[in-house]
Amino acid sequence: MNTIYQALKERYLSMEDDLIYDFYKPVMYCSQQYKRMAGYFSSNLINILYEELKETDAFENIKIKIICSPQLSNSDKEDILKGFAYKKIMEENVINTIDSLNLEDEGLPLITNLIMKGIIDIRFIVSNEGNGIFHSKEGIFSDFDNNKIAFIGSNNETLSAVKANFETTVIFKDTENSMMVDSIDSLFDQIWNNEYPNLYQIDITETIANKINLINSKINSQKKLIQGNFSILNKINLYPYQTEAIENWENNNYKGLFEMATGTGKTITALASQETLKKELDKLLTIIVVPQIDLVSQWSEEVENFGGRTINCNSDENNWKLKLKNEMSKLKRNKAEEVIVITTIETFKSKYFQKILDNYAIENSLLIADEVHTFAANQLVKIYDNLDKIFKFKLGVSATPFRKNETETRKLIEFFDDIIFSYSLEDAIKNKYLNEYEYYPIILSFSNEELHNYREGVANLNADSSEYSGYKEIEKVTSTIANASSGKIYKLLELLKKHDVSNPKIVYCSPGMYNDGINIHEQRHIEKVQNELGNIGCKLRVIKSGVNAQEREEILNQFKSKDLDTLLAIKCLDQGVNLKSVTHAYILSSTDSLTEFIQRRGRILRIEKNKPVSKIYDLVMLPQDISSSNFYPSIEDAYLVSREMRRMIEYNKSSNNKIDNEIIIEEIQNKYYEVLEEYNAKARSRK
């Protein structure tokens, strides 16, 4: 049988220990009595008691006695000195304190119920002179065998003290320090029984309970207004392909992956799927995991647009840990029917978040992974087995649920139980759900100096590497020389001078420093592009990191008012920002990621009334001019050519002008046929 001595430390530090989980919860579970001297009576005391008590289901046999001090005003103290009735003054003071409580205070319903049942009894203490305060922070636990422990803590009775401040709580066991335990216990009993000199104790428990009950009724009325309103199915008509996706998910026991082209409404389809499942259940926990912070706000906005509420968990949110535990605890105790949590992958995979899932997840838990290809990172794969136990239902959505690594892709698809619905870009364009587009590959080539530097860099990597897969290092060389070339900038300027510079457009730049073919300069590539485009009259804005809701709204309004016609981006616009008015994309920099190709294209294909055909200008860099008399391909060229060809083929296959481009694509393939065959043969041999 557990006792209050079990696994106790001599001292708990708030910066190292979780006092709620490591101390209060296990000790209270074993206790039949809890005596507490708690400082002020306040909303903070209600909150901290709630945190200590909510996880304990042993209330039937425990008695909790609390001694605290009212927060008396100067006039209250004067009235006490004048001999006015203590009880009336305290009642008025405590009622005023309760009136100040937040109507959404999660602790009120539980605390009220425990007071009404007689489990909690609160006594208030003032000095006979009305000055000074009762500020002791001590407590005693007794178990069913009358074993006792006492504690003295430096913390005030606030959540910030328990969670954020550096505080200490020292533990005394009666088996080791009976004198200290007996002393604290005796002091409590003296004060409780109104036997301590110069202190006056009063019992107004019933007054407190009645007042809090009134607030509870307001809370319940307020909840009726805000709960149960989340609905997509009653507010919009889904497209036929979205309905088909949801039906496939239902038929696969509410598991599976949706492979849907960027811009075809993956978010709405996922939320409608969630609602379909919720209709079949009494209660549901939904955890939505996204790759970056700006997508947290986007998903949250969508839920709120349809009448729902979310708990957003990431580094930008304050107090999310407390909110998450409170809401999930309510769901587990049948005090709520639905909780929707939105979090980033980084937060989701943290030990803290996983501990919360282990402790609070209910049987009917749904995992939704947005941009699901990002959900196969190594740290996540390691916890797939545990996530399988937690989540009975799973849904992944992405335009490309595939990884470069085939093993990671296989594990991802197995975890979500297969791709159960696909809706291609070609289907979406054909059925008028996405805009038509034209693709223009602009073929460039290295200068002699760039070609020499590139081949030398790749050759050195190949010689030093145990495999022909200094892949990431080769990509760095490629990015430095090919992506950030000043030649691409000058070609972009040439194109824009031929086009209307006011066309709404996105320009994708390199993350590195730009180079002029001989030297790598200190100025970043994106800054160089910004200066050059500003000089020819582009009204531009640089997007360097995640786009929050306010910034996104500003961008949309600026495009609408014609105050903005150009966005410069590196990667952050690959996913998450829907700019329907943008018609042109200029690609100066790219990687070999198929996901990146697809998401970038999707940014400019959103449907808008009277929108012209979208256009992609892709500045393709080859090692050499294939029409040159000096053309001689080398194996060192293969990685770059393979990467550029892959992107060209992907962009071209769904374009309106694909026949025009097939000639140049085929010509490049023929010119580099031998080195590409050698490169691919080596790649196959490594598998």
Automatic annotation (TrEMBL):
MF term (GO), any? ATP binding
Record carries keyword Nucleotide-binding: yes
- Record key words, sorted: ATP-binding, Helicase, Hydrolase, Nucleotide-binding
| Domain annotation Helicase ATP-binding: ranges | 247-419
Concerning InterPro entries, the annotation shows:
ATP-dep_DNA_Helicase, Helicase/UvrB_N, Helicase_ATP-bd, Helicase_C-like, P-loop_NTPase, PLD-like_dom
Instruction: Identify the domain of life.
Output: Bacteria
The UniProt entry, under SUPFAM superfamilies, shows: P-loop containing nucleoside triphosphate hydrolases, Phospholipase D/nuclease
Ranges of residues in domain Helicase C-terminal: 488-672
Keyword Hydrolase tagged: yes
Entry-linked PANTHER family: GENERAL TRANSCRIPTION AND DNA REPAIR FACTOR IIH HELICASE SUBUNIT XPB (PTHR11274:SF0), RAD25/XP-B DNA REPAIR HELICASE (PTHR11274)
Instruction: Name it.
Output: Uncharacterized protein
